[in-house]
Amino acid sequence: MSGGNQQKIVIAKWLLRSLDIIIVDEPTRGVDIKAKSEIFKLLLEQKAEGKGVIAFSPECRELLSICDRILVVSQGKIVDEVLRGSPQFNEPSLLEIIHSA
Fold this sequence. Notes:
By secondary structure, the chain is of the alpha+beta class. It has 2 domains: 1-58, 3-Layer(aba) Sandwich (Rossmann fold), CATH 3.40.50.300; 68-101, no CATH class. It is 46% helix and 23% strand. The protein contains 4 helices and 4 strands. The strands form 2 sheets. The chain has a two-stranded parallel ribbon. Helix 1 packs parallel to helix 2 (33-48). It is globular, with a radius of gyration of 14 Å.
């Protein structure tokens, strides 16, 4: 199986546990665009069911597509919070916040 399929299986196994909160660290690292899209879909379905999804990722686009709130952390401290719907909830603004932290 490809890396993307393996990663989808691992995520699906955790989702079958009916957890209230799902924590993922770079859930799409190293997978192709199709697998990335399917992983996003799985996480968004969980979010739509009212479950909490906490995602760690260095990819701004990934965070912007699945998160309602992004916390920027530098040296172990939260330095900024960006909420969906705010003027800063876009890639250029988020990158500016990250680079000034």
